[in-house]
Amino acid sequence: MAAPLIVIGSFVSPYVRKVLACLILKGIAHEVDPITPFYGNDEFERLSPLRRIPVLVDGDFHVSDSSVICAYLDEAYPGHPLYPHDPRERARARWLEEYAGSRLGDLLIWDLFYQKIVRPLVWGEPGDAERIDRALNEGIPAALDYLEAELPADGYLFGDIGAADISIASFFRNGSYAGFEVDRIRWPRTAALVERVLHHPALATLLQFEDVQRGADIKGRRQALIDAGAPLTEGSWGVREPRRGLMRL
Known about the structure:
Elements: E1 5-8, H1 14-26, E2 30-33, H2 42-47, E3 55-58, E4 61-64, H3 66-76, H4 87-123, H5 129-150, H6 163-177, H7 188-199, H8 201-215, H9 221-227
Parallel strand pairs: 1-2
Antiparallel strand pairs: 1-3, 3-4
Helix pairs in contact: 1-3, 1-6, 4-5, 4-6, 6-7, 8-9
């Protein structure tokens, strides 16, 4: 029996969440080293030169960046397709995945989640109030206007759920941790897609582990996740002290 794949990364990261959901969709056995964002030793840096999570380890092969990982999984493993077969639809799926990872990542992670949650908890300093206001009043509404014109009224983007759907919805999960919810009246298609994706079994099974990780002290986090049934690996690429700005969420 083949050894399970290993994902290095935090359950709370939208990028890690996307990869784990895709692994579940494809039925690939995997384990997680729940490294805390902004932590990571020299061996982690060898595996991920840009010090970003997630990292996928598949035997003697390793690769980082969530979009690269998902493309690898779809090409290397059978099962649920993560991208459409049609070249034009596949290109559009990859674009929407990229838009989510870059634009929604900037707005919902760095401008909102990082400022409101990470800076106070990890660094002990207040978030940038001006940056938060600009994201809430300008950047996020503009991004939602764009998505509203691109998303379907029901169902998923390309038939069954895929990497693009997961990538988009995943960032709004972190937005909710920072108190943001999509206005159902103004952006009904986006709100509905986010809800459908986050309630899909591939995502719903992960959310319990996020709740544990968010609620447990760092020192007791691994044991709390084990107690909750998370599929953890014994290895660890973490260190005891955080390093500012060196790990993408």
